[in-house]
Amino acid sequence: MTEVRSGAAAAAEAAAGSPPSKSPGGVVSGGRRMAHARQAAIGWLFVLPFVILLIAFLLLPLAYSLKLSLYRSTLIEGEVFAFLDNYKQAFNDPLFREGVVRVLVFGLVQTPVMIGIALLAALLIDHATSRFSRVFRLAAFVPYAVPVVIGTLMWGFLYSQNTGPFRGLGVDFLSSDMVLTSLGNIVTWQWAGYNMIVLYAALQGVPREIYESAKMDGAGAVQIALRIKTPMIASALVLATLFTIMGTLQFFTEPLILQPLNPGAITAHYTPNVYAYNQAFAFQQYNYSAAISFLLGAVVFVGSYIFLFATRKRSALR
Predict the structure, then answer these.
(1) Which class is domain 86-310?
(2) Which among 29, 69, 200, 253 is least buried, having the fewest CB atoms inside 10 angstroms?
(3) DSSP track, 289-304
(4) Which of 121, 114, 120, 135 is nearest to 190 (CA)?
(5) Distance from first CA to last CA of the chain, Å, rounded?
(6) Where in the chain are the domains?
(7) Is 205 exposed, middle or buried (0-12, 13-18, 19+ CB in 10 A)?
(8) How many of the other CB atoms lie within 10 Å of CB of 216?
(9) Residue-wise pLDDT tens digits, 225-279
(10) Number of other CB atoms surrounding residue 257 within 10 Å
């Protein structure tokens, strides 16, 4: 039979210096700490593969590229520390500046066009209630599923004056005057469906009761789309526009694939990425190529930050 000690007896034992008994609360607290530690260890085990891949394929290459950009290769002394000399050379390089200006102009024109097409498609599909809305949504998204290289090669055959369907019109889509527009068409075809899916998903999260209330107040479909739907997906619009800006500033695959079709129009310095690629793998200027790449990364960061700062009041992104 368990003996129940009185409060006076417990006090007497404590005064006599007897060791305190373990309380159930302490055991429970220790068990909870062990459980939390076990859960944290399990969580790190799940995250560990991603952390390893992130370090191996992103952080370490970035660190190595940064090291390359701070050195210069010479015939006599080999690799010598140059600090910011490669960056100063890139700032003073007219070919690099020309490529940066070209992608900035391309982004200023391409981004509104692509986002406008994606928003229009998302609004039309969201408004449609027929069974064909899923077919339209899939058809708009299919170009994004096509690999960029395959899509660019396909458009290269279409633009070709020898094999393309427009060869009889006498229009050279890859001439110096038309090539940037032709590349913009490829990018729009490739990525507008992806942005449309992002915006359409945001529209699906808007309560339908708002639309019904607007209809009862006499608002038409166009007014609902412009004054209710579009403002309520401002965050998704900002996000899609941000991704588009980052993608256009890193313009690389399309001009590189189409360059053999007209090297005079698509030069080796057509975009900063193409210029860095040719510097590294055509002229073996790896240090200078790394510096150009980091400068381009700075341009992307500054451009993205300016856009986010300008749109911070119209969206929930901070």
Answers:
(1) mainly alpha
(2) 29
(3) HHHHHHHHHHHHHHHH
(4) 114
(5) 66
(6) 25-69, 86-310
(7) exposed
(8) 8
(9) 988 999 999 999 999 999 999 888 889 999 999 999 889 899 999 999 999 999 9
(10) 19
